[in-house]
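Thread: Newbie trying to understand structure tokens

Hi all, I'm a second-year student working on a class project, and my supervisor (Dr. K.) asked me to get a predicted structure for one chain before our next meeting. I've only ever worked with sequences, so writing a 3D structure as a token string is new to me. If someone could post the tokens and maybe explain what I'm looking at, I'd be very grateful. Here's the chain:
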Amino acid sequence: MAFPRPQKTDSEDVLYEYAVGALSRRMRSVAELKRLLRPRVEADTEYGQVLVELVIRRLKDQGYLNDAKYAAAYSSFRRDNEKFGRRRVITELKIKGVHGEVIEKAVESTYDEVSDEKQAREYLRRKRLVKPNNQKEAAKVFRQLTRAGFAAKTIFVILKKWDIDDETLTAFESELE
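---
Reply by user tm_fold:
Sure, no problem. This is what the structure looks like when written as tokens:
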């Protein structure tokens, strides 16, 4: 089944209605919304670019679009529900087009009262990962915590408390480099 191409418009009101509908389904960053709106206008023309900017400005003025609020809500959701570490949240917000300074402030305020080790343990509990019995299972835990965005220091603290031998930990350190 082929999806129909988006209908092109030259009306600010039609584009605005589409943008509000998109924002009503879920929060979006400014960059995400621009990516969504560009196929609906003649993006290669100056008029199309101005139309997108007008709609974005209108949404910002009305308070429907705010990258700082988006980053704060997104990072607290990922911390509380997914139990991800700060590195993963930072990476995902960068992919979504949020500015670096906004990301830094939002993630810092979200994760400042959270212990990284406690967050990592909650992530392991959520994923039902238990103390590894061999090197292969330890590697699985190590890689999963790395993908979840936890710092190597935090991961090694957890693995040392689980009495993983130093040889295995050295192999993991070399894997990070």
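A couple of things are worth pointing out once you decode it. Residues 86 and 108 are 8 Å apart (CA to CA). DSSP finds ten helices and no strands in the chain. Feel free to ask follow-ups in this thread.
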